[in-house]
UniProtKB/TrEMBL annotation:
It holds the Pfam family Pkinase_fungal. Transmembrane segments: none annotated. Residues 110-568 form the Protein kinase domain. It comes from Mycena pura. This is Protein kinase domain-containing protein. One of its GO terms (molecular function) is ATP binding. Residues 545-568 are annotated as: Disordered. It comes from the Eukaryota.
Length: 568
């Protein structure tokens, strides 16, 4: 908890503490200046104090719908600093004496709470997102009436309060078509229920995904429901909409059905000049470099279908089916010249509306074009090829050597060396995602119990994974999932063979690696999914987070376990 909290404007009394009520905070550190000679202090106390300040900033950013926030620290009997945090970094003022210079803090606080200056009517604080507001009671009722025309959402939300308790009204863009030309139209999105997902990091993309219905659609029966993705894109990365457009163009040309695939229905860079909001709010200002490519741009993307987490699988067969579909979607994208590069538990989802949930692959934030894919993209969208701001995206080989991905699922070769990221690395990530799900969400018999997943995936080097693929699959051979997991393990093992060096006395030589292919991986999935005997009642278990106290973690085999999926 902060030492002192200042509430947002308009809050008269706080009966229970919520970060969403906080406007800024003050940390009183007495003897500790977090910065020493305008550099980060290296003492344990300074690092601890900076960590606390970072936690405050993170909580303010997550809860306040702000593009940047301010935090105050006081120290050494009358000294203070002001810190400005956004999703790219932070800046701090020089230390000043608020006793000897008594106007600094009051002036700062006035400007913080009155960003429009004297006479301004805005109730927002400085840095608060000017594209987000709270819906009126009348708007909430209209939203609830609209979603009640959906059989699925009518059952999900029993009252208007449940559906719209923390609802937000958010500006975004939806694409419309007129005379075969795509036109971006600004729309109001009303969120339904809590956020579907939210990144909890201080710096980075800060991704939040909402379930939304559009104001323009409220009068329709069963209006479309979208996933609204709010993200801070690094300037050196290509906008995600480019990859969605490239895949869609390829599917149209090849007459590939896109039903069940993730589709983009709108995208906007809020940092681009407009009269609808202040674009300066929507780009970070933390770097001291001349190169602005490290600053982050506030983006919103409107997507379908709305998903639910992979960890909610209704059976292990549905989990395997979702991963099989993800491989199919990955292959279509690669044929379109797009490489995903971030297979993870957050990027393979189930469709929310389907009774027998279908899986799909989404989130192309870290994707990259193949050289042929980039050529085809500019042929399909020539106006984007002439954009000088995109020159930074053109070094494909350099980009494909960047370390990208969610660490637990990264392929072994990428953990070992700096190599060009290939589709075979993403196929290996599918295997690690399957193992992750089984270790966390099934009643397995691994001797390390709830620590099994950490033992395999938390290591900063690849050796835990290397050891895993070189042992027989840790499964009950009577389980119907055994052939799937074992065949994938063997295929991943063959991909990571390391030939012995050619020395004169060598008597044995290991084989060259055999790269995973779509045909091999799809054949494994299709063969094993066609097998008989898949259980119907082995739905995902809630993962119990291990205790920091090792004595409290169950590591012994249970006496009467439910039919095991994993056993070692």
């Amino acid at each position: 908890m902060p030492d002192i909290t200042l509430s947002k404007p308009g809050i008269e009394a706080i009966t229970s503490w919520r970060w969403s009520d906080a406007g800024t905070v003050i940390e009183a550190k007495h003897k500790i200046d977090i910065l020493a000679k305008d550099q980060l202090g290296e003492s344990g106390e300074a690092i601890k104090a900076l960590r606390q300040l970072g936690k405050d900033a993170r909580n303010l950013l997550m809860a306040s719908s702000s593009c940047h926030v301010f935090v105050i620290t006081t120290f050494k009997q009358g000294w203070a600093r002001l810190f400005r945090f956004d999703h790219a970094g932070f800046r701090a003022t020089e230390a000043f004496s608020w006793l000897d210079e008594p106007t600094i803090l009051p002036t700062f606080l006035y400007r913080l709470y009155h960003p429009d200056g004297p006479g301004g009517t805005s109730s927002r604080m400085h840095g608060q997102d000017d594209t987000i507001s709270i819906p009126t009671r009348e708007e909430k009722i209209l939203v609830y009436d609209a979603i009640c025309t959906h059989d699925f959402y009518n059952k999900k939300y029993a009252t208007v309060e449940i559906a719209t308790k923390d609802s937000l009204k958010i500006k975004a863009v939806r694409f419309t078509t007129e005379d075969n030309e795509r036109i971006p139209e600004v729309v109001d999105c009303f969120t339904i229920g809590p956020a579907l997902s939210q990144s909890d990091g201080l710096f980075g993309r800060a991704t939040i995904v909402y379930r939304v219905i559009l104001g323009d659609d409220l009068k329709e029966d069963a209006p479309p429901v979208y996933a609204l993705k709010d993200v801070w894109r690094q300037g050196c990365r290509r906008p995600e909409v480019d990859f969605y457009d490239a895949i869609a163009a390829y599917c149209r040309a090849a007459r590939i059905p896109t039903a069940g695939m993730a589709e983009c229905h709108g995208s906007v860079d809020l940092s681009v000049q407009t009269n609808a909001w202040n674009p300066a709010l929507h780009i970070t200002r933390s770097t001291v470099r001349d190169d602005a490519s490290f600053e982050r741009h506030h983006m919103r993307v409107l997507l379908t279908p709305v998903g639910r987490p992979l960890k909610t699988f209704t059976s292990t067969k549905s989990l395997a089916q979702a991963l099989h579909t993800a491989v199919l979607h990955h292959q279509i994208a690669y044929d379109a010249g797009v490489l995903h590069r971030d297979i993870s538990d957050g990027n393979v989802l189930f469709e929310e509306l389907t009774e027998n949930p279908n899986g799909f692959l989404l989130d192309w934030d870290y994707a990259e074009f193949t050289p042929e894919g980039l050529k085809n993209f500019y042929a399909a969208f020539p106006s984007r090829a002439g954009d000088s701001d995109r020159d930074q995206y053109e070094d494909i080989d350099k980009s494909l050597k960047d370390f990208t991905g969610t660490f637990p699922f990264v392929a072994i070769e990428i953990m070992r060396n700096t190599v060009i990221h290939g589709f075979h690395h993403d196929l290996e990530s599918i295997y690690w995602l399957l193992v992750w799900m089984l270790l966390r969400h099934t009643n397995h018999n691994h001797p390390q119990g709830s620590l099994a997943c950490s033992a395999l995936f938390d290591a900063s080097n690849p050796w835990a994974k290397v050891g895993w693929i070189n042992d027989p699959s840790p499964v009950d051979e009577d389980s119907v999932i055994f052939p799937l997991l074992e065949n994938l393990r063997l295929a991943v093992k063959m991909q990571n063979e390391r030939p012995s060096k050619n020395f004169k006395s060598a008597k044995f030589r290991s084989t060259d690696p055999v790269r995973l292919t779509y045909d091999v991986v799809l054949d494994i999935f299709q063969t094993e999914l066609a097998a008989q005997g898949w259980p119907e009642d082995d739905k995902a278990l809630v993962f119990k987070v291990p205790s920091l106290d090792p004595k409290k973690n169950e590591t012994k085999k249970p006496e009467n376990p439910r039919r095991s999926v994993l056993e070692r």
